[in-house]
Amino acid sequence: MRQLFVLDPLQQINPLKDSSAALMQAAQRSGDEVWACTPADLIARGDEPLAMALPVTPEPWITIGASERQCLTGFDVIWMRKDPPVDEAYLYATHLLEVAERAGVRVLNRPSALRAWNEKLGALRFCRWMAPTTVSGRVAELKAFAQEQGDVVLKPLGGRAGLGVIRVNAEAPGLKALLELVTEQERLPVMAQAFLPAVTDGDKRILLVDGEPLGAVNRRPLAGEFRSNLAVGGQAEATELTDRERQICAALAPALRAEGLFFVGIDVIAGMLSEINVTSPTGVREVERLMQQPLADQVIEVLKTLP
Questions:
Q1: Active-site residue, from 18, 119, 245, 275
Q2: Is 143 noted as a catalytic residue in this protein?
Q3: What is the arithmetic mean of pLDDT over 206-214?
Q4: Residue 229, pLDDT above cutoff 70
Q5: What is the mean pLDDT of the chain?
Q6: Is 218 an annotated catalytic residue?
């Protein structure tokens, strides 16, 4: 197989932590040809999908060949692994990748699903598995929800890695002013969720491949912090899935498969679904290190069984 990874510039990637690096190395170990490009390298000449791509040898990290103009129909798989934000450049890249998809190339994750599944709002399809949640740009709505729940977490819909996430009590002075700030004076909606005190025990990242949970780690927040994201200092721990978490995965699986979301990371706190990460889910290295599990190789094995 020939695999192309569309991602951030290679010099920005830390191979010891990055899931994309793990997947690229696993592809090489499976005998596949590995190429890389950035979203800016994608081209459509009429209906012909192209890219200025780099041949790479990712293991050991990394040997890079000279850039070559490649027709995307020459690849068996294209991975869209560009990190958020999901801005105009990201969205246009998904449209260009759809040109390749229409020509018969498998794109992971499916470009239309990357646009449709906001990583906060996508979880609302499965709200029965979530903590009480509301999404609104109206200060009165958010304030009423906070007063109902007592203690809430506010999440910007375009945020990632815990950035911009705020915990606030309904009795906090200046709540209205804070809500005006996070909604940009009622211009943008935000997600508000009931705060789960059990987050001090960790926030579980579960990696689903073709709808099946293949690996998981628990992420425990630092003392005095409620955000458990690794990017803000959360500590990864070995873990096992509970029956409740397996039920959540089973509930999500049909929709993920139907919409071409092959590689997904979900976040679960105290048995409650928090987010569904579809753009460039992380956690592969942590699973491999803590669980002694060759997760990236398993992902590539599953990929090669797809019809």
A1: 275
A2: no
A3: 98
A4: no
A5: 94
A6: no
